[in-house]
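INPUT
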Amino acid sequence: MNAAEETTGEDTPWGEVNPEAARRLLVAAVDAFAERGYHATTTRDIAGRAGMSPAALYIHFKTKEELLHRISKIGHERALYVLDSEADRDGTAAERLAGAVRSFVRWHAERHTTARVVQYELDALGEEHRTEIVALRRRSDAVVRRIIGEGVRDGEFDVPDVPGTTLAVLSLCIDVARWFNAQGSRTPDEVGELYADLVLRMVGARAASGQK
Amino acid sequence: MNAAEETTGEDTPWGEVNPEAARRLLVAAVDAFAERGYHATTTRDIAGRAGMSPAALYIHFKTKEELLHRISKIGHERALYVLDSEADRDGTAAERLAGAVRSFVRWHAERHTTARVVQYELDALGEEHRTEIVALRRRSDAVVRRIIGEGVRDGEFDVPDVPGTTLAVLSLCIDVARWFNAQGSRTPDEVGELYADLVLRMVGARAASGQK
DNA sequence: ACAACCCCTAAGCGCTTGCTCAGGTTCGGG
DNA sequence: CCCGAACCTGAGCAAGCGCTTAGGGGTTGT
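OUTPUT
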């Protein structure tokens, strides 16, 4: 009924999480999980970072695991959206693959705290939640595999092992979340550019954007 | 004084860990850490897997963290050794790079439980131990960077960004520990072969091992 | 025979963990 | 002016944590 949302919800990083207090807790949890890992983070630490008492957490989330689940789900959906929207453009397979890798990597670098939680705390989820998330991840795999497959079909790419190469491409992108450091010398854009080029080489793209 | 070691110490996976009871505990810890992560693993769980009481652990190791440190140190040394011995062969830069990647990846796949602990539990180490391990990791980086640099110098490779490409190559190899599954369809040898080929493409190797 | 030694266990200590609950504050609507 | 809903806190519980301690068996050297 209330038509005015407290915060927009689509462009802001965690805008879909309401009310504001819940969002503060969730952001605090992302930071803490990324820094120390899920199991090494206490609910007191999360509440403390959000400027609340430990009990406040349980008004907005049933358990600590639900917090992780919401982070993981939203994070995966965002990453998949980023990948998908580049894959759906039109253009050669090489252009679409480069675009997808560039955006996906940039997302992992820019949002590397979120990405770290999303990519490396899967095992901390409960059975049910984990299988839900794994399904989302399979869709990322399918997106990349499709582009590579089309490139091969059109004679643009030279790839002996499509599933294997797909795996390697995604693995390369995901691992950015592990090593990327905001204080480091590379910007997310630079890393995205570098990785897009490397991936085009991996698939043996004939004419990388025209000629060469 | 006792000249006969209980176990040889060089070829067996954890042969250098003595006495046998300590090795059993350490192997149990590797399994547990790889499965659940360091912080989610209890000392009771480790001792239980080794068939001992919780107190037995503290006869052989001062703390739970010391266990992780010994695992991490030995693991890094082994991985570095694998990388180094391929890099020191003679041959073209492409041959050496391919050999190094093949062996390094094979190690991460075969020993993926150990590798997972080694690569993803660095933050759980204490300040002092972590800086010691980080030094070892920098040496791996130097090894790969040297080969790529030599390949560029000799005109074998076409690499615009040597440090960046080095980072990507190592990142690709390391991430094998995360996704590799012994029940999966690929053998460690196959993954090593695939990755060696992909890396040669990344560096724009002119003549990949002569012809083909 | 027996003391010295190593390796192990049963019991448990002090502390932190995830989580609960009774109660208090704030605020819009009747 | 008061009500009920939404939100938060202080205090604390049961369980589980890393680790310690006292002591018991087996093997060894003398």
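end of record. Chain B touches chain A at residues 36-37, 39-40, 120, 123-124, 160-161, 164-165, 167-168, 171-172, 174-176, 178-179, 186, 191, 194-195, 197-198, 201-202, 204 (CB under 8 Å).
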